[in-house]
Amino acid sequence: MYELTGGNYQVHRTVSYPEFPDSQLVFETEVKAVGKTEWSTKIAVSGTYNGPTDIASIRDYQLDWTTDGQSLSEKGSATLMTLTGKSVRSNWTSTIVPAKPQFERFPKGGEIVNVTFSPFKINGNEMSYDWHGTARASARQ
Q: Strands 111-117 and 55-67, how do they pair?
């Protein structure tokens, strides 16, 4: 398994919501590793979102990573769950650019990543959750 470890990353992510075709969000993100298991993240969000705002958890989170040797391309999808039990599908594409690209050991066919999230804990303007993920080399060559 290839791991994104250490260093700094710039992430550009565009998210769409099939049930809400007029909605599209763009996330410009800076991520810094501040410890072995802790990351500091700054996010600037722009765009339009016309879907529900009571999102409480995430299901079916999956990523597909490939690289050109300098950046990581990501295609992803997830189901957002509301407090009332409704679901909203989200799809995205991202470009992840590390300050020091090190993709020599990245699988040629890419990686598939599956993640599970705990329900969100929201306290005022703070949100926390636990997540666990697994990555495996893709079968494509």
A: antiparallel
Q: List, as own/partner pairs, every contact residues 38-47 make where C-beta atoms lie below 8 angstroms and the sequence separation is at least 24, other chains included.
A: 47/23
pTM of the model: 0.81
Query: Per residue in 81-99, is it b (16+ CB within 10 Å) or e — as a string?
Result: beeeeeebebebebebebe
- Binned at pLDDT 50, 70 and 90, residue 46 comes out as very high
Asked if residue 51 is part of any domain, the answer here is yes
Expressed as residue numbers, the domain containing 57 is 8-137
In a domain, 2, yes or no: no
| Burial classification of residue 33, based on how many CB atoms lie within 10 Å of its CB (0-12 exposed, 13-18 middle, 19 or more buried) | middle
| Both structure tokens of 48 | 């339009």
Q: How far apart are CA 3 and CA 136, in angstroms?
A: 11
Question: Domain containing 48 — which CATH number?
Answer: 2.40.155.10
The set of residues, in sequence order, having a beta carbon less than 8 Å from that of 88 and lying 6+ positions away, is: 17, 19, 20, 51, 52, 55, 79, 80, 82
Please report whether residue 15 resides in a domain. Answer: yes
